[in-house]
Amino acid sequence: MDLLMPKMDGMEATRQIIGQQPHMRVLVMTSFVHDEKIIPAIKAGATGYVLKESEPEELIRSIEKAYRGEYVLDPGMARKLRNDSSEMAAVDLIPDPLTTRESDVLKLMVTGLTNDEIAAQLVVSKSTVRTHISRFNAKLRIDNRVQATLYALRKGLGSLEEVENERSAIV
Q1: Sign of the C-alpha dihedral, residues 113, 116, 117, 122?
Q2: Torsion angle of alpha carbons 120, 116, 119, 161, nearest 10°?
Q3: How far apart are CA 166 and CA 139, in angstroms?
Q4: Among 8, 15, 44, 105, which is least packed, fewest CB within 10 Å?
Q5: What is the pLDDT of residue 55?
């Protein structure tokens, strides 16, 4: 989904698509790196946000992840958001702290691992991973992997270097 279109902007189109087809996946692909566009696009229901300048291989991986229901955020955009406290306030933590295991799952999620991969690494079931994700999503008042990743990066529970190393290992 592009954000600039002639008759309707991409955020409104995304809202309408998700409203009519809740299981649809919408990946925003834009040249906008402006902070004020990222969070609203995600809140509109976008599965992820990538730049048009992305390498073809990265774009293909992003599309595949979005298709599988995984959330995608361009690393450069995550870096920009991490440095902008006004936008990050939208995914700030409530006073209830995460358990050690919830933090472990969140740290692995930041590197781009799937629930299956997190389960294998922590030697737990996929169901257990989903439970931890549901719990920290409720505590953090977030509803997707992109918001969880942004929170984790802001709080130092992961780093962009880990994300980039994980992406390099996949290529």
Answers
A1: positive
A2: 90
A3: 27
A4: 8
A5: 85
